[in-house]
Specification:
CATH class: Alpha Beta
Strand order of the largest sheet: 5-6-3-10-13-8
InterPro entries: AIM24, AIM24_sf, Trp_RNA-bd_attenuator-like_dom
Structural class: alpha+beta
Helix content: 10-25%
Strand content: 35-45%
Shape: globular
Protein name: TIGR00266 family protein
Radius of gyration: 22 Å
CATH superfamily: Mitochondrial biogenesis AIM24
Pfam family, one: AIM24
Oligomer: single chain
Largest sheet: 6 strands, antiparallel
Number of strands: 19
Number of domains: 1
């Protein structure tokens, strides 16, 4: 194997974290800001890119880092390596309510494609690259743009997605229509495209957007019930308005309810 072999346990239900056990000299790479805790004896180091091109010299490091810029991520990632003789543990937390999805890339022929912000961490040696869309319509209206993330290698990788996760196994020719924001990732042989919703009423009043993501098998697809963009939109719409006035907290009394609960000042 070119990737480090790691053991792991996923803790929690809605706000999960993954605890990874590292043997001596084993390492894991993670996105900045996902670190939660670690045992004494683990060495933390910041590197350009994902660490998969470190043996290729300066050009390899720059190319690895440049791929991350195209996906909107930082140039740098953090490596956590067990520098002691015994086993050590390091943990990484979910950025928002949802589920952590473990992916053994050897089960997916060494490649998995996911949305740009889904990657959480992986065994060192896993390449976190880019997957360009070859179709204009998919790139413009697919919700993920022209670029998605591509995880390659023979080790473990971990994704995070919002809400509850649904795993679909598509047979050859089987098609699944998904909201563009709810798509988390899919295996390399799944054909990903977009489809117009159709109908004047659906387009204007449907509230579900103009396009579906269509995924045609064979392959595995992961779907999330609560995309972060949808969660953020709900939070913003429920935030206090000008003057710290709320929306009556769902009450039919509206502003009268604010008077009763003492929010208004005279």
């Amino acid at each position: 194997m070119t990737s480090h072999e790691i053991d792991y346990i996923i803790h929690g239900e809605e706000m999960q974290f993954v605890e990874i056990e590292l043997d001596p000299q084993e390492a894991v790479v993670a996105e900045a800001g996902s670190f939660m805790m670690m045992d004494d004896g683990i060495k933390m180091d910041t590197i350009l890119g994902d660490g998969s091109g470190q043996t290729e010299g300066v050009l390899g490091k720059l190319f690895s880092a440049g791929k991350r810029l195209l996906t909107g991520e930082s140039l740098f990632m953090t490596v956590f390596m067990n520098a002691e003789r015994g086993k050590k543990k390091v943990a990484f937390a979910s950025p928002y309510p949802g589920k952590i999805i473990p992916l053994d890339l050897t089960n997916f022929n060494g490649k998995f494609i996911c949305q740009k912000d889904a990657f959480l961490c992986a065994a060192k040696g896993v390449s976190v690259g880019i997957e360009f869309s070859k179709k204009l319509g998919r790139g413009l209206f697919g919700g993920e743009g022209f670029i998605m993330q591509k995880l390659e290698g023979d080790g473990m990788a971990f994704m995070h997605a919002g809400g509850t996760i649904s795993k679909k196994e598509l047979q050859a020719g089987e098609k699944l229509k998904v909201d563009t924001g709810c798509l988390v990732g899919f295996t390399q042989h799944v054909n990903y495209d977009i489809e117009y919703v159709g109908g004047i009423k659906n387009t204007i009043f449907g509230g579900e957007g103009l396009f579906f993501a269509t995924l045609t098998g064979p392959g595995t697809v992961y779907i999330q019930s609560l995309p972060f963009s949808r969660l953020a939109g709900r939070i913003i719409s429920s935030a206090p308005q000008t003057g710290n006035k709320n929306k009556g907290e769902g009450s039919i009394l509206g502003g009268i309810g604010d008077l009763l609960d003492g929010d208004n000042r005279f």
